């Protein structure tokens, strides 16, 4: 999609089949041995095949996910991989990650003098000799960091979601076009695309295993995540970045930060994003001063348009962070000839009898490890997979759902994608003394979206 602000109808005007090629081709979903998962999938040839040469990685964002992603990259086969630079805004995070990775991969860590700290630390990793950079900061910074990585000529693995607002999504799409022009690989941490059971199941469904799709359901219902209280010595910006999950500009709300996985699976199934949605949400339990702005529950009805696999199909989406309730992290689809629990890779007949179950065996750490095997093996063959577009579209799907729950109004895809509402200007942040995009009132509370009043498009 050359124009990041092009409408979905314009982007898909050619044919349904072209839509399918674009959405799945963007995945670059490679099997461990190099076989392509799905007849429509292709990857571009790169200018350089690394073969068995040492590949160098840099890490931007030293939280738990970034640390684990770096270790998974170091655990790939086919040739040596070394960590040559790492960065975080917090020194304690950077040092903890350095010690943790070195303790597990002693001979593969060569960055003792390239541990960078601060809001500009990411740029120093881009100036290093890393071949691949891992972007794993809070997602509000992802567009800025991704753009910098592509400008620096780096292959990229970036965690999901890839943005927290529509301008950020468009920035990702624009930088992704640059990546294609420069022959750079782009991989997004939507790891279900790299799990054998999911791939096998989606392929069967798209080939008619349950007939025409009637209804889909997607859930990420659980107890929630950590809270990091304010300390007296913190500036407002530092506090928000420490407690980033609870600020929409940083984390996107949990519909974007977590539930994107489930929404992405249904987009994958349908070969593209929904055309509109409406929903409800709020802060019923998690509503203290340490809980920033975000909701603790969202319920969204998404509508898919004229794709290869459905016209007007609804997806019912739930995500919730409240303890003591029914929990589920799963995806489901109902069809004219049966039902599928996608998350368990099981297909049932209309009478409830099991019709098929995948017997695929996943590797240790499943898709989280497999996605790195796939990326590095592709680069060693001189191939450059690109998942940037579908990563951006699935991120935008989650943001559109949040727009609906925050506003209480229906939202159309084209309006959502073209929204000019920017939650934060991360480029202007140079230190913890910079102004935070959201300021608390005299009681320490932050502005929270009010359905029926809040403008989101």
TrEMBL record:
GFO/IDH/MocA-like oxidoreductase domain span: 199-338
GO molecular function, one term: nucleotide binding
UniProt cross-references to InterPro entries, sorted A to Z: Gfo/Idh/MocA-like_OxRdtase_N (IPR000683), Gfo/Idh/MocA_oxidrdct_glycsds (IPR050463), GFO_IDH_MocA-like_dom (IPR055170), NAD(P)-bd_dom_sf (IPR036291), TAT_signal (IPR006311)
KW Transferase (keyword) present: no
Pfam families named among the record's database cross-references: GFO_IDH_MocA (PF01408), GFO_IDH_MocA_C3 (PF22725)
Record-listed E.C. numbers: 1.1.1.18
Superkingdom, natural source: Bacteria
Keywords assigned by UniProt, alphabetized: Oxidoreductase
Organism: Crateriforma conspicua
The name this protein goes by in its record: Inositol 2-dehydrogenase
Residue ranges of every copy of the Gfo/Idh/MocA-like oxidoreductase N-terminal domain listed in the record: 55-189
